[in-house]
Amino acid sequence: MNVPSDLKYTKDHEWVKIDGDSVTVGITDFAQSELGDIVYVEVDALDETLDADSVFGTVEAVKTVSDLFLPVAGEIVEFNESLEEEPEKVNDDPYGDGWMIKIKVADTADLETLLSADDYKAIIGA
Question: What pLDDT does 108 receive?
Fold first, then answer.
């Protein structure tokens, strides 16, 4: 199971790449493998400001639909539009081309609440 050490994580299986007061978010390798073949990614909250743990969209796999939760409060400023045509990028490259959204973080102190790679590995038993 791939869990890059330079990223932060949530208990809801999202990864977070921090770049100052902006972050890029996607779902982890563990999450995509549990879901199976992803056929659709929907983000309803583009240009909205939401609280941490708010649902910002859904990811649909062949057998299930899962909510996506915002890891930190902030404004969703970008959606990876390539996922509309190629949702399988989430399966093929979850930490690269399969990213989902970019957020302008409301309070950078919230970033301290995210899990380290080691903490996330403990949750998934890796």
Answer: 92
